[in-house]
Specification:
By secondary structure, this protein is α+β, with helices and mostly antiparallel strands. The chain contains two helices and seven strands. The strands form two sheets. It has a five-stranded antiparallel β-sheet, sandwiched between helices. It has a two-stranded antiparallel sheet with strand order 4-5. The structure holds zinc ion.
Length: 160
């Protein structure tokens, strides 16, 4: 299961329009949550993504991965450790916004410049259920906002 590349839902498919449901506390630390996050990571890396959300692999649950690193799709991305976020929520977003280019594994061949908050504070749970608060700036903050949008049925192309 760990090395599985999952099929990626494409724009127009219903799962991408849904508001995803929260992972329940009972599911923290479960085998399925570990296996799903592993398979999401494998799928993201296979496609040179810098982030992925569970609805993109047909699971309508509030789970995202943020993994900024330079790759052929984003050569200038800063390097950061990969973070799996369960039930992520943006607590605060700076009024300062910045424009940056985005693409999406679910919107093949399309890129566009999207206005996003420069700085955000996010609260999320680890796969094991530990609650974390973390601040993100710039490109990683952009990825978090893009991926959380997926959990609310929003694709970046709706801003263009
Ligand atoms: Zn996306």
């Amino acid at each position: 299961m760990e090395d599985v590349v999952l099929p990626v839902a494409q724009k127009g498919e219903e799962v991408l329009n849904l508001v995803a449901t929260k992972v329940s506390p009972r599911e923290f630390g479960s085998l399925w949550l570990h296996q799903l996050s592993q398979a999401m990571q494998t799928t993201m890396k296979y496609h040179h993504g810098v982030g992925i959300a569970a609805p993109q692999v047909y699971v309508s649950k509030r789970i995202i991965i943020v993994a900024s690193r330079p790759n052929p799709r984003y050569p200038d991305a800063p390097d950061m450790p990969e973070i799996v976020m369960v039930n992520p929520e943006i607590l605060t977003a700076s009024s300062e916004k910045c424009l940056g280019e985005e693409g999406c594994l679910s919107v093949k061949g399309e890129r566009g410049r999207v206005l996003r908050a420069q700085k955000i504070v996010v609260e999320y749970y680890t796969v094991m259920g530990e609650r974390i608060q973390q601040t993100f700036f710039g490109f990683p903050a952009r990825i978090v906002q893009h991926e959380i949008d997926h959990l609310n049925g929003i694709l970046f192309v709706s801003y263009l």
